[in-house]
Amino acid sequence: FSYGFRTLDFVLSLGAGGLGAAPGFAVQKAPDLKLKEFTMLCAPAVDSWLKIDKASGTLSYVGKGSEPPAILEANCHVAATRVDDRPGADPKAAPSTVQVMVAVRLVRHWTSAAYRLPEGGGPVEARIGDQMPAVALEDALPEGYERYERPGHDLQVEVLQRSDGTLVALPPADFPRVLDVACTGAADPPADTPWACGGSRESGPKALGPFVWSRQTGEVRLGGRLALVLDPVTGSLRTSVPDLDMPKDVGRCDVKVTCRVALGYPSGGALLPSASVTVRIKDNVCWLPWANATPGASGPKRLWLDQWLTHAECIEECRARVDCGVLSFDPKADPSSKQICFLATSDTVNGTEATRPLEEELVRLEGCTEDTTCFSMATGNATFLDGEYCPLGAPGGKPRKHTLYSRGGVSAKTHAVMGMVDGTLFGSACPQGSWAIQHTNETDYMNANTTEYEVRGHPSACVTKQVAAGAGGGDDDLLKQLFGRGSAKATLNLSTWEMGEAYATYSDDALIPEHPQALNSTWSLSTLRCEKPSFAGKVVLGEVGAPDKYSLDACECFGE
Question: How many C-beta atoms surround the C-beta of residue 216 within 10 A?
Fold first, then answer.
């Protein structure tokens, strides 16, 4: 006889009423084999949770209580007496014994699974070329339970707390297997620049695919380029560096990839519903228009290739070409209709040398991210706040809800820091959701664990987005517009302290408004600044067609 398996897993499940009883294992034998007086001997002893029915030999879980047994595994010897009732059998003959060895385990299976998402349950944030954070897959708790932690103590087992305060200790859980992964994705165009990723607000997100998951490596790829990695064994989202082929797929917009992971156990039990995780992958290229370009003013002479394309196709074509750093497209034209698209090129054979109006040119800025790229602020009536604002990194590179920016000055008094009033910036009287500019103080403090920042310098101004006519509201973040379009219009309200400083600075009071007033301000992304090169002796220049021959950064290739 046998029990059908060499190892018997007694599976516990967690439900609303606590740990549920595991099913038993019945004896499997030939129909003509009759057995009686079953006995069991296990090493180590597991009598506290495992019993045998002496008549049928069925092994059953009989544990009780809110704590798991101390011993969860054992090897058991099961024996039974054979009943010989064949005709002519000697009733005085000694009964024969049959026996079997079997391993037993008390285990727990997940009832469902969920990803341990960031606070708020939003999508996992990632960016092309940057390290994506890892996200673990864990057992989803039934309603009325939460994980219990005791500060300062390392619990030996996982402990849950019920809504009534009762603590329940759990035996270790067997991790489910990944059965399959299916991923879908779409590029959601920004409200201000739908043409940036080849879509429109009317048509909705631009579907992307197919996304292919590798059962060997866990890599999820689109067109052969890496999007993310889902571990083929655990299903967890592993840290990786997205490398989507953005020139062909999208443009300056977010790509949302949603993966559904089917999980189950070798015994055939499947976890329903499947676990789902969404990753939002941001672009790392920006397009900078000429700020305050004079209508009709011409830019420098360039070599151009001209093609008949829509605005989205023009951007995609420029991004697909390694030698295209500038494009020209009439901003007054309908972005969805085909117009003449001019692409800057190094092709001396097919390119045509010409100048284009500055207001039509878009400059391609690689490696453009909210965490690393500076921007310039220009305010006509408050030039003391003008200048370049650059990201102020958090300790250990920890991400913040919104990036902090700092601007240097000729003295400590003119240094400034700017941040979003979002619950992580303290010391500002600016309204929630606006940007606050404060003069720096040597006692300014950033919490290294939470990245919360306290400003203790004098208030300078509050900044909000300037809503254009027909824009449909002012809820959009200034940074989204800045990085989506390359520039943004803002409204700047000077503080009472700043106005007092202005009164003290100027001798003619007529030049100073009587009260703080709203001022127009323009934010523009900053391009890489380079020292003008000096060529001494013979200079050898590289070719676009041989990128492996030279390794130069932007400042080594181009002067000021």
Answer: 6
- What whole-number distance in Å separates Cα of residue 18 and Cα of residue 170? 10
What is the spatial distance between Cα 391 and Cα 369, in angstroms, rounded to a whole number? 10
Per-residue DSSP letters for 145-168?
Answer: EEE---TT---SSEEEEETTS-EE
pLDDT over 80 at 43, yes or no: yes
**What is the reported pLDDT for 65?**
59
What is the pLDDT, as a whole number, of residue 550?
Answer: 45
User: Residues near 428 by Cβ (< 8 Å), separated by ≥ 6?
Assistant: 419, 421, 436, 438, 455, 459
DSSP lists the bridge partners of residue 270 as 264
pLDDT at 115 over 60: yes
pLDDT at 397: 65
State percent of the chain over pLDDT 70. Answer: 79
Look at residue 489 and give its three-state secondary structure.
strand
Q: Identify any residues that bridge with 398 across adjacent strands, giving them in sequence order.
A: none
Name the helix (H) or strand (E) containing 319. helix 311-320
C-alpha separations of 5 from 25, 38, 127 in Å: 10, 18, 48
- Does 560 have pLDDT greater than 50? no
pTM higher than the cut 0.85: no
Task: Check if the beta carbon of residue 83 is closer than 8 Å to that of residue 35.
Answer: yes
The pLDDT assigned to 437 comes to 93
Residues contacting residue 559 through CB under 8 Å, at least 6 positions apart = 530, 531, 532, 533
Helices (H) and strands (E) in the chain, counts: 5, 39
Q: Is 507 helix (H, G, I), strand (E, B) or coil?
A: coil
Q: How far apart are CA 367 and CA 130, in angstroms?
A: 10
Is residue 493 within 8 Å of residue 382, measured between CB atoms? Answer: no
Give the residues across from 344 on adjacent strands: 304
Higher pLDDT, 507 or 136: 136
The type of residue at 280 is R
